[in-house]
Amino acid sequence: MTKTSHTPLSELSFFATAIMVEKGLYPEFSAAVMAEAHQIQAIDFTTATANKSIIDLTHLPWCSIDNDDSLDLDQLTASEILGDGRCKIYVAIADVDVYVKKNSVIDLHARHNSTSVYSSIKIFPMLPPLLS
């Protein structure tokens, strides 16, 4: 039996972070980004649905291709039978600009990286976990 060497997870995580930096991306959130995220207040959806600015579709059977333990549900789908063989497909896309204002510190960080980066060892999210 041949002995194989294993690279510790912390070392692989270090390499993933180094590659992010090498590619000009921000692997971590700055203190300013995290402070701004902590200041964001949740939207009162009860008020929003009452004044018709948001339509409540929580009665639909939404589903996602994300894992069951995912905390980042940024796209969902649902369908509704309309009759006469017709069906309506809904696609929900996360709209974080309700929380993240243009040119804010969070927006500038997200715009710079432009996406979440998924490596086999570590995920580098585009937005702070508080917003996911």
Task: Give descriptors for this structure.
29% helix; two-stranded antiparallel ribbon; globular; 4 helices; alpha+beta; 132 residues; two-stranded antiparallel sheet
Count up the helices: 4
Strands side by side in the biggest sheet: 1-2
What oligomeric state is this? single chain
**Average pLDDT figure:** 85
Estimated radius of gyration: 20 Å
Beta percentage is 15-25%
Outline the biggest β-sheet. Answer: 2 strands, antiparallel
End-to-end distance: 45 Å
Overall geometry = globular
Structural class: alpha+beta
Low-confidence stretches: none
Question: Share of helix among residues?
Answer: 25-40%
Brief digest:
This protein is 29% helix and 16% strand. It is built from four helices and four strands, in the order αααββαββ. The model has no long low-confidence stretch (mean pLDDT 85).
Overview of the molecule:
The chain has helices at residues 9-22, 31-39, 45-50, 105-113; strands at residues 75-83, 86-93, 117-118, 123-124. It is built from four helices and four strands. The protein is globular, with a radius of gyration of 20 Å. It starts with 8 loop residues before the first helix and ends in an 8-residue tail after the last strand. It is of the alpha+beta class and 132 residues long. It has a two-stranded antiparallel ribbon with strand order 1-2. The protein has a two-stranded antiparallel ribbon with strand order 3-4.
List the SSEs and their pairings.
Blueprint: H1 9-22, H2 31-39, H3 45-50, E1 75-83, E2 86-93, H4 105-113, E3 117-118, E4 123-124
